[in-house]
Amino acid sequence: MLFTEQHEEIRRLVRRFIDNEVNPYVDEWEASGIFPAKALFKKMGALGLLGIHKPEAYGGMGLDYSYQAVFAEELGAIHCGGVPMGIGVQTDMATPALANFGSDELRREFLAPAITGDMVASVAVSEPQAGSDVAAIKTTARKDGDDYVINGSKMWITNSTQADFLCLLANTSDDKPHLNKSLIIVPTHLPGISFSERLNKLGMRSSDTAQIFFDDVRVPQRYRLGDEGAGFTYQMLQFQEERIFAAANCLKGLENCIQQTIDYTRERQAFGQALLDNQVIHFRLAELQTEIEALRALTYDAVEGYIHGNDVTLKASMAKLKAGRLSREVSDACLQYWGGMGFMWDNPIARAYRDTRLVSIGGGADEVMLGIICKLMGTLPKRQK
């Protein structure tokens, strides 16, 4: 993938923003269990950073996804995982289907303010009994006049307690599981919506996550995205951007883990020499950096296919799988070389160890990625196809 000066300008803009507006406050946000999405997104919206890949007609830059991938990669320089995840929900998880399938009226009402940072968006798919198994969701949206009446609950919803609207997947008929779902924009101020306390997570501590309950929530049918019953398909397409974003977002953070470990092991003395002078350590770090470059090449290849309109399900799934597994491998190996210091809660590698564990779970678990890859390779048993 070839980068232009415009790509590099976006890199520089994101770096400056992170250095000035994000990293100085990360420790505070991690301690409080939430980052100020409304204030931060407003600043990002003023710089155009929430609409890089979105249509110009609604305030976006109208650029292809290679520019969004650069944005996602640079967000990896944030000193935690929760903030970039919250940003990614706004740009690559809750709004792609709205941008691609929403009516002009819906896009003006919800997409445009999401791009300017005047609204916080959240995607509501997972449920207590249906995480990676999207077809198994139970939340319903039944027609009543010109409205849908929504009942059910959603679980592990990022940005939920600060969100102005949800991109919600619900069953709108009794048809087959892949044909009975629709994506619906649901404003969070409506009667019948309630939230649990913020969930106490292992990692991603600065990201607010909660369960959402829907009790006869009434939403106009015009808030549906695209065709009724096409929601499962739309969500699978939306997952493509989510998975590419996740892979790209890992790269800088993993490189930072390695660089911080190099710096620490160069200074730390044991048995009369710097830890880094042990071949087992500097060879291992070299191997891990090589793996990161391989992930970068795979991710860029998926982006290249995506911007040319190709079906990138296979490569996006591979990149997501590799990103999750490599995140675990890098953070675990680096933490080992920090020894007892790495086991301290406030250690940056310990934070990465906790935060990156989610990459193998969220947006489709590793096992789901493997199932997709096997299906596209034609290696699944017939009963599973």
From TrEMBL:
<dbReference type="InterPro" id="IPR037069">
    <property type="entry name" value="AcylCoA_DH/ox_N_sf"/>
</dbReference>
<comment type="similarity">
    <text>Belongs to the acyl-CoA dehydrogenase family.</text>
</comment>
<dbReference type="GO" id="GO:0003995">
    <property type="term" value="F:acyl-CoA dehydrogenase activity"/>
</dbReference>
<dbReference type="InterPro" id="IPR013786">
    <property type="entry name" value="AcylCoA_DH/ox_N"/>
</dbReference>
<dbReference type="InterPro" id="IPR046373">
    <property type="entry name" value="Acyl-CoA_Oxase/DH_mid-dom_sf"/>
</dbReference>
<feature type="domain" description="Acyl-CoA dehydrogenase/oxidase C-terminal">
    <location>
        <begin position="229"/>
        <end position="375"/>
    </location>
</feature>
<feature type="domain" description="Acyl-CoA dehydrogenase/oxidase N-terminal">
    <location>
        <begin position="4"/>
        <end position="118"/>
    </location>
</feature>
<feature type="domain" description="Acyl-CoA oxidase/dehydrogenase middle">
    <location>
        <begin position="123"/>
        <end position="217"/>
    </location>
</feature>
<keyword id="KW-0285">Flavoprotein</keyword>
<dbReference type="InterPro" id="IPR009100">
    <property type="entry name" value="AcylCoA_DH/oxidase_NM_dom_sf"/>
</dbReference>
<keyword id="KW-0560">Oxidoreductase</keyword>
<dbReference type="InterPro" id="IPR006089">
    <property type="entry name" value="Acyl-CoA_DH_CS"/>
</dbReference>
<keyword id="KW-0274">FAD</keyword>
<dbReference type="InterPro" id="IPR036250">
    <property type="entry name" value="AcylCo_DH-like_C"/>
</dbReference>
<protein>
    <submittedName>
        <fullName>Acyl-CoA dehydrogenase</fullName>
    </submittedName>
</protein>
<dbReference type="Pfam" id="PF02771">
    <property type="entry name" value="Acyl-CoA_dh_N"/>
</dbReference>
<dbReference type="Pfam" id="PF00441">
    <property type="entry name" value="Acyl-CoA_dh_1"/>
</dbReference>
<dbReference type="GO" id="GO:0033539">
    <property type="term" value="P:fatty acid beta-oxidation using acyl-CoA dehydrogenase"/>
</dbReference>
<dbReference type="InterPro" id="IPR006091">
    <property type="entry name" value="Acyl-CoA_Oxase/DH_mid-dom"/>
</dbReference>
<dbReference type="InterPro" id="IPR009075">
    <property type="entry name" value="AcylCo_DH/oxidase_C"/>
</dbReference>
<dbReference type="InterPro" id="IPR050741">
    <property type="entry name" value="Acyl-CoA_dehydrogenase"/>
</dbReference>
<dbReference type="Pfam" id="PF02770">
    <property type="entry name" value="Acyl-CoA_dh_M"/>
</dbReference>
<dbReference type="GO" id="GO:0005737">
    <property type="term" value="C:cytoplasm"/>
</dbReference>
<dbReference type="GO" id="GO:0050660">
    <property type="term" value="F:flavin adenine dinucleotide binding"/>
</dbReference>
